[in-house]
Amino acid sequence: MYRSTDDRLLAGVIGGLAEYWSIDSTKLRIIFAILLVVSLSTLTLLYLLLWFIIPQKPSTTDFVEEDVVDETNDREEEN
Fold first, then answer.
1. Which of 17, 29, 50, 58 is the most exposed place for a label (fewest CB within 10 A)?
2. Distance separating alpha carbons of residues 32 and 2, to the nearest angstrom
3. pLDDT at 23
């Protein structure tokens, strides 16, 4: 589970949850907004907590850089 980097309005928490649960992020945002009013802003604290707990989705360039570093380390160990 990651915060979305593509489908985000604030921090990508709801977009990431929507991707994880395979549902439309707009529907989840509407549900969140309704629950936010009903919960008297308690849901805001949950959102902020998830913002800090859930890591941001790594980009594809991060994976490429990790592979290059791993290959370099393997070559150094062989020598």
1. 58
2. 18
3. 93
